[in-house]
Design goal:
Elements (H helix, E strand, L loop, with lengths): L5 E10 L7 E10 L2 E7 L9 E6 L3 E5 L1 E2 L19 H12 L4 H16 L3 E8 L9 H12 L2 E8 L18 H15 L8 E7 L7 H14 L2 E6 L3 H11 L3 H7 L7 E5 L5 H10 L2 E4 L1 H6 L7 H7 L3 E3 L13 H11 L11 H15 L17 E5 L11 H7 L5 E6 L2 E5 L2 E2 L4 H21 L1
Parallel strand pairs: 1-4, 1-5, 6-7, 7-8, 8-9, 9-10, 10-11, 11-12, 12-13
Antiparallel strand pairs: 1-2, 2-3, 5-14, 14-15, 15-16, 16-17
């Protein structure tokens, strides 16, 4: 939409998630092009020119779009498998199947993952893709094109693995890359697709998979490459007690100390899970500004444990929310993670004081933007920021009797999304995607899941 064309949204509750947690019981937003021009209490200013649409959002809550900080899109076509496993056993069970993915499978899986998130209020998505079987096609390009077609803001964390079974790792030998090939392919992806501009729709991060699937040299050289190229770094860290044991046995130190020894702590780094962190680990993350993608549903599904999110936040660690791969979070939705983050953390040491509804919403919006290095552009509703806005319907049976709309959103049933805007463009209306055919995506993902299952069964 041209910068001088305006959309006016009125009569809704607004949770801005700005630095002061400003809220309006009834207010307005003016979107001009791809930016938020103004917002406040009451009705929009009179005399606005070039208004192309007015939305009466009575009964709705407006929030920043949700920001997903960790995902594995390809797993959409292996949902519902290995449902009673811990992480290492789950990986051993599924790697032989994942090692047979190809470009059509990955594109269909990306479409399914993106569609489910977008229709549930996600406006910024990310994918940590690290499985690149030989001769499988242009997997990174397929994922990026799916995000572009869906109309969501997107970060591809170009992953890699070079420690296979023969080296003591978990992936099959034919599913990993060599050190040189992984570094070269990652750098090529950055140079081809990364957009560093304020309103970028596509960004790239350097993302070796995990301590138990990559070599020390891939971590070290990957960090050097990312900083030379000016992009962020992402990996898995401290997810399970088994990982802690693995790092001590192989490297003589815990995961956080190992990451620091390879250049993997800093304001340009974020790690997924971080469940098993001691006080020293949390202090190191806080000191260096290293971020965390908290994935409560996946952590529970794989019995990994409860991350110390309240302690991280108290120490100043940047924390956002992640869906994680849909083979360990079959719902594939981020708005359910708002609720699960609050509830799961209240089972921990801090009990009812662990998190409240507004802290949970902040994790899913501003927290995620901060983790992705984009807090100046997205994650809160403020003049000058990008027009990534969601209208949640709060006047139906599911929520109408809850007076506090933020509590209703976080603690209540999944709220319907009446409208979702990304970069000023509406991509969801009344819970349905405007940019893709959901039924066609369902058919293609089912077909590709069955094809993968047949190939994997043949071995």
């Amino acid at each position: 939409m041209a910068a001088d064309r305006r959309i006016v949204i009125e009569n809704c509750a607004i949770a801005t998630v700005d630095a002061k947690d400003t809220e309006y019981a009834s207010g307005y937003l003016v979107l001009a092009g791809n930016r938020i021009e103004s917002l406040g209490a009451g009705t929009a200013p009179e005399g606005l020119e070039n208004v192309v649409r007015r939305i009466d959002a009575s009964g709705h809550l407006a929030t920043p779009g949700l920001v997903n900080t960790h995902h594995h899109f390809y797993q959409w076509i292996t949902r519902g498998l290995a449902t009673d496993h811990n992480l290492f056993d789950w990986l051993v069970a599924l790697y032989p199947t994942w090692a047979r993915i190809d470009e059509p499978m990955v594109r269909a899986a990306a479409q399914g993952s993106l569609a489910m998130m977008a229709r549930g209020g996600v406006t910024t998505a990310m994918d940590h893709h690290y499985v690149f079987p030989r001769d499988s096609g242009d997997l990174s390009g397929a994922i990026i094109r799916a995000a572009q077609d869906m109309g969501v803001r997107f970060t591809l964390a170009r992953g890699s693995m070079d420690r296979s079974e023969k080296d003591g790792g978990l992936p099959p030998d034919f599913a990993v890359e060599t050190l040189d090939d992984a570094l070269a392919a990652t750098e090529e992806t950055v140079r081809r697709y990364h957009d560093a501009s304020f309103d970028a729709m596509t960004q790239i991060a350097v993302a070796p998979c995990s301590p138990f699937s990559v070599s020390t040299e891939l971590l070290r050289q990957g960090a050097e490459s990312a900083r030379r190229l000016g992009v962020r770094l992402h990996t898995h860290g401290s997810e399970t007690v088994e990982e802690e044991k693995f790092c001590h046995e192989l490297f003589g130190m815990g995961p956080t100390d190992y990451f620091e020894s390879t250049g993997w702590l800093g304001e340009d780094v974020w790690m997924a899970h971080c469940v098993h962190m001691n006080d020293s680990d949390i202090a190191a993350f806080a000191r260096t500004g290293t971020g965390v993608a908290h994935c409560p549903s996946s952590n529970a599904r794989l019995a990994a444990g409860i991350a110390r999110v309240p302690d991280m936040l108290a120490a100043g660690v940047p924390v956002g929310l992640g869906v994680d791969g849909t083979a360990s979070n079959e719902s594939g939705e981020l708005h359910t993670e708002l609720r699960n983050a609050l509830l799961v953390n209240r089972l921990g040491a801090h009990r009812e004081a662990a998190l409240n509804a507004r802290q949970a919403l902040r994790l899913g919006t501003h927290g995620g933007a901060r983790v992705l290095g984009r807090a100046g552009e997205i994650g809160s509703l403020e003049p000058g920021k990008l027009a990534d806005v969601v209208l949640w319907r709060m006047d139906t049976l599911a929520h109408a009797s809850i007076a506090d709309p933020v509590a209703a959103l976080v603690l209540g049933a999944a709220a319907p999304v009446t409208a979702s805007f990304v970069n000023g463009r509406q991509i969801v209306e009344d819970g349905r995607l405007l940019t893709a055919d959901e039924d066609a995506i369902a058919r293609s993902t089912r077909a590709e899941a069955r094809r993968l299952a047949r190939i994997a069964a043949r071995g």
